[in-house]
Structures are given as C-alpha cells and as structure tokens.
Write a structure and sequence with these properties.
OB fold (Dihydrolipoamide Acetyltransferase, E2P), Dihydrolipoamide Transferase, 4 domains, 5-stranded antiparallel beta sheet, 31 strands, 23% helix, 30% strand, globular, transferase
C-alpha cells in the first residue's frame, strides 16, 4: 500500500523547505534508511531518509523548488500501484506524519505570550517522528542564553541532534527533563527577560495551541546534526552539513575557515572560496616559533589549567550501565592462547586471489568461532537464576566502534554462513552502525561476541562479557616473530586471543576445550570449508 511522504518540519519555526537535491528518481527501489533527498531551510541543509521500503512512484517537489511543511514530497509503494486517487486528492493511506498533523490541531484558546518571551517546542526532525527524548540539557534554568548556544541534545531512534537557540535571553523554564520523552510540539523551553513570570504559559500551553507570539523572524531555533561541529582549542566551530561535506572532500580544516553565515556559521560558499595561502604552513609556524624563542627570556611556567566537560550521551550511559552490571554480577575468568597464523595467511591469500572475493582475518575468526560453538554449545549459553539456557543456534555479535561508543551488530545463524557471506554481512552491519542507520532488531539476539582490536596493533587484551552471553573472544594483532618449529628457530606469524567466560555457566575445562577447537580451525582453515 502506497505511503505518502510529506515535507518535514525540521525546526519549530520552519514553515517551508527547499529540495536541494533528489538522490533517488521515480522507479528506483527504496529501502529503509536510504537517503531520498537533501532538504534546505534558511538555517541548514539536511539529508532526508526514507522510513519505508518500496518503489519511488512519484516526486511532488522538484529540485530547487520550495514548498510548505506537510506538502506532498513523494509517494512510495509497490511497482505499478495505482496512485491516481492520491494525486487527485482522494483518500490516502494514513501515515504516521498525518496522524501527527491531526493530533496537533488547536486544542485550546490562544496563549498570550508577553513581549520578549520565546516558547520553544519539540521539533519534528523526520517525517515519521512523533516523539523526541532530551538526552542532555546543556543549559539550566536561570542561565543566560546567547544566539548560537546549544540548549540541549535531542534523540530519536535514528539520530542525536543538537538543538540550538537563535534567541538571546534567560532560560526561564524547562518543559522536558533529561531522559524524558515528549510528543512533537510539546513545550520544550521558554526564553525571555530575567525575572519574567511564565508560570501561566507553562501551565496553559498545550500541544497544537495557537500562540500569540512575536513575529517568526524573532523566534528562531533550529536542530543541527551533532556531526556538523568540530572541537578546537578556541571553542566550537559551526558549519552546515553541506559545508562540512565539501570541506572533508577537499581536505580543508574547518577551523581555518571564516564563516559568513549567521553567528559566524560556515556555509557552502565559505568553503568553496577558501584559500589556504592565507594560512601559515606548519613549517612557517615552526620557524616563527623558533625565532620567537630565541628572542625571549628563559621560560617561566605560567600555564592555565584547562578542562573540557563532555556530557554523556544516552548511548554512553547505556554502555556504562550494561558493562558495569556484567562485570559486577558475572564472575569473569580469562583464558589466553597463541595461534600459528602461517596457514591462515596462506589460505587467505589463495582465497582472495579468486575473482570478486575478499575475506579478512576477522571473517575467519568469526567462522572458526561459529563452528567451535556448535561443538561446545555450553559456551553458547546464558545464565538465569532458575536455569542455564543452552543455545543451539549461533548468533555472533561483532563489536563495532562508533563515534559515541560501541555497538554490537549481530550475525544471525552465523554457522550457516560461508566466509564471503560473513564478510559481506559484517561490512553491511558495521556501515549501518557507524552511520546510525542500524535497526534495533539487527543488534538483538546474540549468543556469543567477538571484539577485535588487532587492526589497531593491540597484541593482547581482555573484554567484558556482553550480557546475556556467557563468553566473549578478544582478538589481537598478527605478529611476526621468532618461533620454534621442528626444533628450529624460524620466523613465524602468531596471533593471541583471550576468551572471557562467565564461571556460572562455563567451567575452565569447557572454555579450554572450546579454544582448542577454535585453534584447530584457525591453524587449518581448509577444515572450515568442508
């Protein structure tokens, strides 16, 4: 059944948007998470992603055209589906965004807003967003707020966004506390002159209420993606997403670019017109510093203590809570073994010599673990107060480092996958995790976990068990070193792995037997192809 996609309202004062670029065309197959278009407001350019699977049947707003919020942007459905009724204003499939619009109709009389007071509401950051969660407030009631200050970080299930104020004043009221969720258009905060009584506004304001507020140009707030900022020693650098992308493509350091946008924000033209000739090269800077040193008196320490406080994201809080629970409730013990990787290296080179084939050592570790778990199912278990659950299916979680912490995408039924299938699935899931497009279902149901830091040169380490698993395998780097073979010292390649086990479910001998089987598979990769 066809789904109507409307122009999203990307800030609480946005009334229209411009389609900068369509990244899909009519007839293209669309998957959930695909970027449909880039939408511009006067404040930002943001990628607009699909939350539906299907075929793009219709584009309602062409590139370069503007349209009011909730205008028909696109229709997604099945190939060949008749959408004439939708285009002619007939009854359309009711979508989530339509429900939000219906629920947001005025429900009370107008609330009178005193002069200089600004009411900030929860923005709708995507076409399907109905609620948002305040991850962190960066200001508290009574704080002075300047234009460009970040008020809060707001989370949906798709992204974490910084919510920025373009008003100056005092934060008089907070309507949604940290960790709490609220519907779109709920009162989020009130700004105004210090000492203003806003209790009547806070008590009487309702979602969708008509507000007698100052002119729109006086009330400006916009949500900007967390990834459009960079930290420098002098403070925060603000840049539009499009400017940041162009700077990244051209290798330009945004801290060296002067912004011409509002409050010094760096925009597309600033990056395109940037000339590095005006910036001192590292060599010039060193020369100038050297000359300065020779001209001054002996150095007298006069430094200043500098600290930076970074608020914990919801992801970071969750990681801390779950790992603490695991470490302090599950009795961990560790088993370490060294592997001879010469055969693995030779086998990988041979496999990758085949056309259109690419296998990593991590893929081989995952495959060997899956096969060893089938032979030692007790390692593939979980503890409950009343019973021990033995999983006879193998779902391996692969730890992936992301900007905000750690995610563990899960390969379902790993033991049934070939090496190339494992590689393709890991690449796909890791990409989704790093771009924050992974679905919750893709991170659920693991029975065993692998953490690999070998690519960072780490030779050996231990990990905390990813509950409710009973074990996690820590994989180190492949090291070339002298080894003894057949009584002779020769150059060999070795890799160290450490198995962390929950002693409630996995006894020492069981863990050791699992590692022996894993070692046999890794040192003789041909046995994994049988």
């Amino acid at each position: 059944m066809a789904q109507i996609i409307t122009m999203p309202r990307l800030s609480d004062t946005m009334t229209e948007g411009v389609v900068a670029t369509w990244l899909k065309k009519v007839g293209d197959t669309i998957k959930t998470g695909d970027i449909l278009a880039e939408i511009e407001t006067d404040k930002a350019t943001m990628e607009f992603e699909s939350f539906y699977d299907g075929v793009l049947l219709h584009i309602g707003i062409q590139e370069g055209q503007s349209a009011p919020v909730d205008s028909l942007l696109a229709i997604i459905g099945t190939a060949g589906e008749d959408i004439a009724a939708l285009l002619n204003g007939g009854t359309a499939t009711e979508t989530k965004e339509e429900k939000v619009v219906e629920e947001a109709k005025p429900t009370s009389a107008a609330v009178e807003i005193p002069a200089g007071v600004k009411v900030v509401t929860m923005p709708r950051l995507s076409d399907t967003m109905t609620t948002g969660t305040v991850a962190t407030w960066l200001k508290k009631v009574g704080d002075t707020v300047k234009e460009g200050d970040i008020l809060a970080e707001i989370e949906t299930d798709k992204a974490t966004m910084e919510f920025e104020s373009f008003n100056a004043g005092t934060l008089l009221y907070i309507g949604v506390q940290e960790g709490d969720s609220a519907p779109v258009d709920t009162i989020l905060a009130i700004l105004g002159p210090a000492g203003t009584d806003v209790s009547g506004i806070a008590a009487n304001y309702k979602v969708g209420a008509v507000v007698e507020a100052p002119k729109a140009e006086e009330v400006k707030a916009v949500a900007q993606e967390v990834v459009v900022t960079e930290q420098t020693t002098s403070g925060r650098v603000f840049a539009s997403p499009l400017a940041k992308k162009i700077a990244q493509d051209k290798g330009i350091n945004l801290s060296q670019v002067k912004g011409s946008g509002e409050n010094g924000r760096i925009v597309k033209s600033d990056v395109e017109n940037f000339s590095p000739s005006a910036v001192a090269t590292p060599a010039q800077a060193v020369a100038e510093a050297t000359n300065a040193v020779t001209a001054v008196k002996p150095f007298v320490p006069a430094g200043e203590v500098f600290q930076e406080e970074i608020k914990n994201s919801q992801m970071r809080k969750t990681i801390a809570r779950r790992l603490s629970e695991s470490k302090f409730t599950a009795p961990h013990y560790y088993l370490t073994i060294e592997l001879d990787m010469d055969n693995a290296i030779a086998s990988r080179n041979m496999i990758n010599g085949l056309p259109d084939t690419k296998v990593s050592f991590n893929d081989m570790v995952i495959k060997a673990s899956a096969m060893a778990l089938k032979k030692h199912p007790q390692v593939n278990s979980q503890w409950r107060d009343d019973a021990m659950v033995i999983n006879h299916h193998v779902n391996i979680g692969v730890a992936v480092a992301v900007e905000d912490g750690l995610m563990v995408p899960v390969l379902k039924f790993t033991d049934q996958m070939s090496l190339t299938q494992i590689g393709a699935n890991v690449k796909d899931l890791a990409g989704k995790a790093k771009s924050k497009k992974i679905q919750p279902a893709e991170m659920e149901g693991s029975t065993f976990t692998i953490s690999n830091l070998g690519m960072f040169g780490i030779q050996s380490f231990t990990s905390i068990i990813n509950q409710p698993n009973s074990a996690i395998l820590s994989v180190g780097a492949i090291i070339e070193k002298p080894v003894v073979k057949n009584g002779q010292i020769v150059v060999g390649n070795t890799m160290t792995v450490t198995l962390a086990c929950d002693h409630r479910t996995v006894d020492g001998a069981t863990g050791a037997q699992f590692l022996q089987t894993f070692k046999a598979f890794m040192e003789n990769p041909v046995t994994m192809l049988a």
